[in-house]
Amino acid sequence: MANQERYYWLKSHGICVQCGQKDAFPGYTKCPECIEKAEEASRKCWADKEKRIRYNKRGNERKIELREYRKSHGLCIRCGRPMESKEYLTCKWCREKQNERRRNQRGRTQGEHFRERIEAGVCIYCCGEVEEGYKLCANCLKKTRARLKTSRQKSSEKWREEITLQWQVAKQKSLRNG
């Protein structure tokens, strides 16, 4: 029997996965004696501060190396799955899981904090006093308008460049065919 199969068999039958002899403590996979042995070994291992620092440093370096390897080979930096697009560093599945964890930590659904602030009559960004007829305070409204103006200028400049380039190409073709 393989180790993983043994582990799941023992676990499903309520037997200690460490010694395989005694009943597991309720809510755990090990018997009380094995739990105590594991805790003692852990205390000994982590009691030496230099050893703990060295161990953590080595683990962090390994994580950084693994992340860089996955990033350079077009894999998800979390799970190592092949990426659908180069737009993100994580795959769709990992992003969904991360978003779900964050929502659960906050105890809110997506956009709920904005709705709460709107109902309370405060700015949706900074909780300041809102301008009449808006959902933002004067300062956030000013910043948002400036960002929107900049965004519109950039998009229209890009559009103009594309149209100009297409016009020049069409003009050159017509001159050649002339």
Report the C-alpha radius of gyration, rounded: 29 Å
Question: Average pLDDT value?
Answer: 86
Tell me about the largest β-sheet.
none
Distance between the termini: 82 Å
Unreliable spans: none
Brief description of this entry?
This protein has helices at 3-12, 32-47, 49-72, 92-106, 112-120, 138-177.
Describe this structure in words.
This protein has 178 residues and is mostly helical. The protein has 6 helices and no strands. It has helices at residues 3-12, 32-47, 49-72, 92-106, 112-120, 138-177. The model has no long low-confidence stretch (mean pLDDT 86).
List keywords for this structure.
single chain, 178 residues, 3 domains, 6 helices
Break the fold down into its secondary structure elements and pairings.
Blueprint lengths: L2 H10 L19 H16 L1 H24 L19 H15 L5 H9 L17 H40 L1
